[in-house]
Amino acid sequence: MSDPFLRIFPYLVVRPSRNRYRHWVHNFVLLAVFLIADFDLAKVMAADSSSKNRTTQSLDFNIPAQPLTSALNVFAEVTGWQVSYPAELTTGKTSTTVVGTNSPKGGLQQLLIGTGLTYQFTDTHTFTLVRDVRPHNSSSSPHSPSPQHSMSAERLDTPHIIQAPEIVVKEIRERDDSTTYVAEEASTATRTDIPIRDVPQSIQVTTRKVIEEQRTFRLQNTLENISGINATESAASLHDSLIIRGFTATDRSYFRNGLLDPFAQFSASDTYNIRRLEVLKGPASVLYGQGDPGGIINIVTDKPLPDPTYSINTTFGNFHFYRSELDATGPLNENKTLLYRLNVAGQKADSFIDFANRDLVVVAPSLTWLIGSRTTLTIDADYLRRWSNDPYGLPAQGTIIPNINGPLPRNRSVTLGDFSTFNRTSYRIGYDLSHQFNDQWSIRHSFRHTIVEDDKNNLYAYPDSLDPDERTLQRFQVLQPAVNRRHANSMITNIVGHFSVFDMDHTLLAGVELRQEKTDQFLFTFAMAPSLDLFAPNYSVQPGAFSGDPISFLAHNKTAAFYIQDQVAILPNLKFMGGFRFDYVHQSTQSSTESHSSDENAVSPRLGLVYQPIEPLSIYTSWTRGFQPNSPDSFNPNGALFDPERSTQYEVGMKASLLDNRVSATLAWFHLTRENLVTPSPDPMLAATGFSVQTGEQRSQGIELDVTAQLVPGWNIITSYAYTDAEVTKDNDPTLLHKRLANVPYNKFTLWSTYHVQEGPLEGFGIGGGLFAYTSRSSSIFGNPIEIPGYVRVDGALYYNRELDRENWLGVKALNMAINMRNLLDQRYVSTSHNGSNFFFFGEPFTVLGTVGLQF
């Protein structure tokens, strides 16, 4: 199987056209695939062979009656079988006593008597628990032995098992996010495994299934499915710039596997190794420290799995789009205590904007070591290299309002043409160490080191103003004369405990966090660029000359914090959550002429209550506070430092989990204020010299609805609606009062649905489509803002997915094909203003992507 696989893969890999990277990427991918195919498959085949004798033997069981969860852990440790199940399925259930000699299957049947559960094998060595819906007197199935079934009964045949320690049951199992739109748990909200329906705050999850079926490669495209999230950059940009609940998400809003990822915003995260995206709405300082009031985005990446799986995808599209992806995972040794995963992607692509290329290479290896039955260590790394020519917005004349020369073409670029370049590289490496002391207490320790570098001599231009002739654009140009470098370190340690006091169950979290972000070097110089005729552009004109010394800027941010949180089940259907976090933050900045520093501390609380009148329905309310330190170089007339910004949110909502968890819905009302904003001094003399006062306030309130569903096998739906009223409520400038915040529509509605035929002559075929609708938005709160018209975009998709006979000459397990179409009606519309300015980005015209994928 491995040889044909290796023969076809080199023809599917896409490599950027830069010669100095071409052979490196090619050889790296080929080497990785060779190691995976030849080494791993040989290991698995040897493991299967050596496990036959072991798994057919009888075993001695001594499992007393106890909570079902702990009984399953003991069973897994004795047999080496792997089990996965939703946590709520075993809550409150007790196992029967299993004593004596029997086969693993016979022991499992005895263990589940009286629990209302049965089991199903998901492969040859893993089973899952499901509710037993068969009549109690049924005796036709081997999964339902009668209570009189003795341990000396006839042994049933068992599948081939490879020994795996108990930790696989607890840490390595993961719900397959590639098969459903519906998520039941999200650790972002509480840093624990509390189900979403028990969390008194809105948290939304976009699974891998949505990413794959929409074929999105950028966060802003994927997160468009979630209510209250809007983009303020072009999809061809080098940056992720998003708005959550009316407020801009800065670098403090992006997390990766629960750790702050402060430079993710500047390198446009790619979805190639994302398993799911979790968005916690509202201030999150109670667990995550300083941050923006709208919420946080947590990227959960792929992790190594115990079963060998390989897949490759190749995508082609208009605007010269070519992309290939590799995903491989499996065990490295016979007893599956050492697991690996390798994700690789290469992309060479232009865009509908002239000169705005989107080339990249990304590599993410990870390794998991099951050190013992209750201890696991995962080490992962990430390399991302982007070659781009970052686009900037077009003026209103010709995009939104009439231009005396006619409408501007959607492909017009305001850059320096081929003279422009903005290339950036990011590196991440970290580890996650977890240990379970017993069934009640566990500890997790995580660390990550991140580096981001901008290439030497990056050169780009951005618009300044449009001349009265409405065709001549004045521009600035910026040169980075050296390699600009930033680095960050992030570390957390969490302890989670489950215990009972006065017959009330507690889930207690306590943790500490240390962070450091540092700008090691940032040099730039700027000058006026040659003007550009927007209707007859000449990109061959040499950039303008730079004069004077480069401007230097350095920054350093250090954080130390501890936090505590407790969820208390006051009654089985009434749950209280409370917690707080204390942060100490040191900031320092240094420019070419001056330096400033500050020390701040803050306490951020959260209180919430969840009431469940019936099991599928949760009614909740919460109050939470957040903070964000102001920059130490903001000038205060009295010489004192400004207090941190504070945010306060009140939220009331309902969550429903229906049809055996196949439908998940959240309806939320929120009132969110952002206080202590720094505004220009009301004294004209002080304002002219840069002094400010701290009197600003902004408010956002609204209603949000998010629904994900799998109504019948093959039919998936994700839909959302948001009404958001966001405005300035206090400011020294009376002209700003009650102005709408930039790029926030009153109404946003999205609907995406797919259906895959499950049987019959059309089995494997599928169809998908969606609507993405926005009402009008204000371009800015300053000057004379322009109203951005609303629009409705229609997308579509066609699919063909087929499982194949494993005896085919390539050894391919499944074939997946898709055609994704964006903006089916080819509407001309403006998607956003550039970061709240009066320059604008067009939305993508009609775009087609064709994908072919193979699974091995």
Description:
By secondary structure, the chain is mainly beta. It is 11% helix and 49% strand. The chain contains ten helices and 43 strands. It has a 22-stranded antiparallel β-barrel. Helix 1 (2-8) runs antiparallel to helix 2 (19-55) and helix 3 (68-79) packs antiparallel against helix 4 (104-111). The chain is globular, with a radius of gyration of 28 Å.
Task: List its salient traits.
single chain; 856 residues; mainly beta; 22-stranded antiparallel barrel; five-stranded mixed beta sheet; 10 helices; 43 strands; globular; disordered N terminus
Calculate Rg over CA atoms: 28 Å
- Sheet/helix structural class: mainly beta
Helical region count? 10
> CA-to-CA gap between the ends?
9 Å
Please give the share of residues in helix: 10-25%
Total strands: 43
Low-pLDDT stretches? 1-56, 135-173
Q: Using the alpha-carbon principal axes, give the shape.
A: globular
Strand content: over 45%
Summarize the structure.
With about 850 residues, the chain is mainly beta. The protein is about 10% helix and about 50% strand.
